[in-house]
Design goal:
single chain; 697 residues; mainly beta; Methylamine Dehydrogenase, Chain H; Rossmann fold; eight-stranded mixed sheet; five-stranded antiparallel sheet
Length: 697
C-alpha cells in the first residue's frame, strides 16, 4: 500500500487515506480465467447415452458418455477458433449417431456470420456423426435436425422448407414439402409415422403435420393466432400445442399482467386435424405466455396429463392439466408452488417425474429439484452451494451442468454412487487456483427510488484500503446474475472478467436491476422500464451511491461496464450521471430506443406512435448526451443481429460533436454474442486497459 495525503481546506490537519494499488501483478491473466471449456445443452436418451457440445478456447466439439461408467470422450475434433458453433443436437434412440448443426444462421441480408474472414465463406450445415468415432458427415445446408425414432432418417430445415435424408448417406437430401411460411421445431411422432412442425407466417403461425407414407400435409386447428411448441401424445394420435392470441400492437414494452385474450393450450387429432381447447390462462397475471429456459414448453406426461409453465402466482411455475377433458373450467394443478421461478425442465423416460432447476430457497443461485407429474412435495436433488441447471434424464440417472463460485461449468451426472463429472480433465492446468479467486457476496441495496435490488459483490483479497470500483450491468434484460459461474456462455465470460477485475484490486458489484428474471413477474415487468421510462436507471444510480458510501471505495473512481441491455444502462449512467460514474465500457449497447425497437418489431413506426416515441427517446442515452462528460470505450461487431450496429454509429457522431472522450473497437463480421474466443480476449484486454487508465488512483 501507499499513503496518499488528502487535505481539505476546512481542515487544520491532513487526513491520511490508505489506497490499495490497482493492477500490480494480478494472480492470473484474462487468458487464464477464460481458459476453461464451456459445456451446454445436454441431451440424453432412455438407454443411458449422453451427448453435449463443449467449447474450448473457441474450438467447438461434441462429447459423448454412456452407462455404466459415464466417462466422457470427445467424438468430433475441430481445432480452430473459427466461430462455427455446434448446436441443435439430436441423439438417436439407440445412441449410435448424433445429428447436429454447425454454424450460425443468416442475417436479414442472407449473410452468414464469418468473423474469421474465411475467404471461401461459411454456411450453416447439418451433420451426422457416429458416437463410436469417425469424421462427421455433411447432410446438407440447413438447421433444426430431427432424427426419426428408428434412427434411419434425419429431417431438417433449409431456407424455411423441410428436407430429409437417410442417415447412412445412401441417397441425396430431398425436399419433403413445398409450402408457404418458414418451418421450425421439427418433431417426429413416437411411432415415426408423422413429422410435426411450426409453420411461421409473419403475424400468425400454424402447427402442421406431414405424413411421409402418403406425402400428405395437414394444418391442425388453424386460426389467426400464433400456434407452436407442438408435443406428441405417447400413442402418436394427438398433438398438444400452445396458442398465443395474435396482436397488431407493435410496441413490445409495458405491463404483462393482463390480456383481454389469454393464451391457451389445445389438443388436435392428427387424423382429422380438428382441435379443442383443454385449458386457457385466466385474466390478470399469467395471461401473457412466459416461456421456460428449456427448448420444450409442453410435456405430455403419464396419466394423460400435459405439463406447462404458467405465471399465475406472479412466479413462473409448472402446472398440469388433463389432456382428455375439454374446457377451461378444468382446474390446472400447480406442481411447484412458492416464491421462486422454474427455468430448465426435463421429463423422465417413463413420463412420471419432472426434473427442473429453480432458485427455490436460494434466490441468487440455481439448484435441481424433482417432482411427480401427479403432484406432491418436490425434492431437491443435490445439497451443496453449487449452481445446477439443464437436467437431462438418461435411463434412471440425471445428468446436468454445474458450477460454483470458483469453478466454472462442467457436465456431471447423478447415479446411485453419487455425483461425478463426465469429463475428468475438464479444468485446464492454467486455470486460476481457487485461492486466487474470490467468493462473491450477496448484497441487497436500495435503488434511488427505494426498490430493493440484489447484487453480487466481489471484494478484492487483502481488504483494509480504499479502492476504485466497477459496476457490471448484464444484458437481456431477461437475465439474472448469480453467486457463481453463470449457465449462459456470455455471462460465463463476464463472471470471469469480474473475477479478474477483483484480482486487480477493484471492488466489483454485479447488479440484478429491475426487468430481469428470478424475482417474479412484478419485478420483471417493472413499471416504466426500458423504453417506457428507463426506471432501471434508479437501480444503476442506487448501486453507484451504495458503492460511494462504502469505506473501501474511492468515491470519485466508480466505473460502469456491460453489454447489450447492460451497454444501454452503461451509456445511460454515463449520460445522466457523469458526476458519479467516472468512465465506462459499453459493449454493443442500445442508445436510441426508437431505432432499436424497429430491429425486433419492424412494424413499429415512431411517426405513428408519437406518444410512445417521445417517451422512448427520453428513456435513451441519446436524450442526455449534452450532459455526458465521462470517457467511454465502445465495442461492437458490425454483423450484430440483436443490437443494430447503427446504435454505435449514432452515438459516436453525437459524442464527437460534443468533444466527449471515447475509444472504439469494431469487430468486422462479428455478431452480438462474440463468436471468436480471440475477440472475447481482445474486448476484455481493451476494457481492462481502459478502466485502468481512467479509474486507477
Amino acid at each position: 500500500m501507499r499513503l496518499v495525503i488528502s487535505a481539505f481546506t476546512s481542515a487544520v490537519t491532513a487526513i491520511l487515506v490508505l489506497v490499495a494499488p490497482v493492477g500490480a501483478n494480478p494472480a492470473f491473466t484474462i487468458d487464464d480465467i477464460l481458459s476453461s471449456s464451456f459445456p451446454s445443452a445436454l441431451v440424453g436418451n432412455p438407454r443411458g447415452k449422453l451427448v453435449w457440445p463443449q467449447a474450448t478456447r473457441g474450438a467447438h466439439n461434441l462429447w459423448f458418455a454412456e452407462a455404466p461408467s459415464f466417462q466422457g470422450r470427445q467424438i468430433t475434433h475441430y481445432t480452430e477458433d473459427d466461430g462455427q458453433e455446434l448446436s441443435e443436437l439430436c441423439l438417436s434412440e439407440d445412441g449410435a449417431v448424433v445429428a447436429f448443426t454447425r454454424g450460425e444462421g443468416t442475417n436479414a441480408h442472407g449473410e452468414y456470420p464469418n468473423p474469421r474472414h474465411l475467404v471461401a465463406g461459411v454456411e450453416q450445415t447439418v451433420f451426422i456423426v457416429k458416437t463410436t468415432g469417425g469424421d462427421p458427415k455433411e447432410v446438407g445446408k440447413g438447421h433444426d435436425p430431427a432424427l426419426s425414432p428408428d434412427g434411419k432418417t434425419v429431417a431438417f430445415v433449409t431456407a424455411g422448407q423441410v428436407w430429409s435424408a437417410p442417415v447412412d448417406g445412401s441417397k441425396k437430401p430431398e425436399q419433403l414439402i413445398h409450402a408457404r411460411g418458414n418451418a421450425e421445431g421439427l418433431t417426429w411422432s413416437p411411432d415415426g409415422k408423422f413429422l410435426a412442425f411450426t409453420s411461421g407466417r409473419v403475424q400468425h403461425s400454424f402447427v402442421a403435420v406431414y405424413t411421409p407414407g402418403d406425402k400428405a400435409l395437414r394444418y391442425l386447428d388453424a386460426s389467426v393466432d400464433n400456434d407452436g411448441s407442438a408435443t406428441w401424445s405417447p400413442d402418436s394420435t394427438k398433438v398438444a400445442f400452445i396458442r398465443v392470441p395474435t396482436s397488431q400492437e407493435a410496441f413490445d414494452f409495458g405491463p404483462r399482467r393482463a390480456n383481454d385474450a389469454p393464451w391457451s393450450i389445445r389438443v388436435a387429432d392428427v387424423a382429422s386435424g380438428k382441435g379443442r381447447e383443454i385449458w386457457h390462462a385466466q385474466p390478470g397475471k399469467g395471461s401473457e405466455f412466459r416461456e421456460l429456459g428449456s427448448d420444450n414448453q409442453l410435456f405430455w406426461a403419464a396419466g394423460d396429463r400435459v405439463v406447462f409453465p404458467w405465471e399465475r402466482s406472479g412466479y413462473l411455475h409448472l402446472y398440469s392439466v388433463a389432456a382428455s377433458v375439454a374446457g377451461s373450467e378444468l382446474a390446472a394443478v400447480e406442481l411447484t408452488p412458492g416464491q421462486f421461478e422454474v427455468e430448465h425442465v426435463a421429463l423422465s423416460p417413463d413420463r412420471r417425474i419432472l426434473a427442473y432447476s429453480s432458485n427455490q430457497d436460494d434466490i441468487d443461485r440455481r439448484h435441481l429439484w424433482r417432482v411427480s407429474v401427479a403432484g406432491g412435495a418436490a425434492r431437491r436433488l443435490t445439497n451443496s452451494l453449487d449452481l445446477e441447471w439443464s437436467p437431462a434424464f438418461t435411463g434412471n440417472d440425471v445428468a446436468f451442468l454445474r458450477s460454483d463460485s470458483k469453478q466454472p461449468a462442467r457436465a456431471s451426472i447423478m447415479t446411485q454412487s453419487g455425483v461425478h463429472d463426465l469429463d475428468a480433465h475438464w479444468l485446464p492446468a492454467d486455470f486460476p487456483a481457487p485461492s486466487s479467486l474470490v467468493e462473491p457476496q450477496q448484497v441487497i441495496f436500495p435503488a434511488a427510488d427505494g426498490l430493493a435490488i440484489h447484487g453480487q459483490l466481489f471484494l478484492p483479497q487483502g481488504g483494509g484500503a480504499k479502492r476504485p470500483a466497477v459496476i457490471f450491468l448484464h444484458g437481456g434484460s431477461r437475465r439474472q446474475m448469480l453467486l457463481g459461474w453463470h449457465y449462459m456462455f456470455y455471462y460465463n465470460q463476464a463472471y470471469g472478467f469480474n473475477q479478474y477485475l477483483a484480482s486487480k484490486g477493484y471492488v466489483v458489484l454485479s447488479i440484478n436491476y429491475r426487468s430481469g428474471i428470478g424475482y417474479g413477474l412484478d419485478f420483471r415487468e417493472a413499471v416504466n422500464y426500458g423504453a417506457t421510462g428507463a426506471s432501471e436507471f434508479d437501480d444503476v444510480l442506487g448501486a453507484g451511491l451504495y458503492l460511494r458510501s462504502r469505506p473501501d471505495v474511492i468515491g470519485d473512481k466508480i466505473g460502469l461496464w456491460g453489454g447489450s441491455y447492460g451497454g444501454y444502462l452503461t451509456a445511460l449512467g454515463l449520460a445522466r450521471a457523469s458526476d458519479l460514474f467516472a468512465a465506462g465500457v459499453d459493449l454493443h449497447g442500445v442508445h436510441e430506443w426508437n431505432d432499436e425497437i424497429q430491429n425486433f418489431v419492424p412494424a413499429y413506426d415512431p411517426q405513428k406512435r408519437q406518444d410512445l416515441a417521445r417517451v422512448a427517446f427520453q428513456s435513451s442515452p441519446m436524450a442526455f448526451v449534452d450532459t455526458w462528460k465521462s470517457p467511454v470505450l465502445l465495442i461492437h461487431g458490425d454483423d450484430d443481429r440483436n443490437v443494430n450496429f447503427r446504435q454505435t454509429l449514432m452515438l459516436v457522431e453525437a459524442l464527437r460533436k460534443r468533444n466527449v472522450e471515447f475509444e472504439e473497437i469494431v469487430f468486422p463480421d462479428e455478431i452480438h454474442d462474440l463468436l471468436l474466443h480471440e475477440d472475447w480476449l481482445t474486448a476484455y484486454h481493451a476494457a481492462d486497459d481502459f478502466l485502468g487508465r481512467h479509474l486507477q488512483h
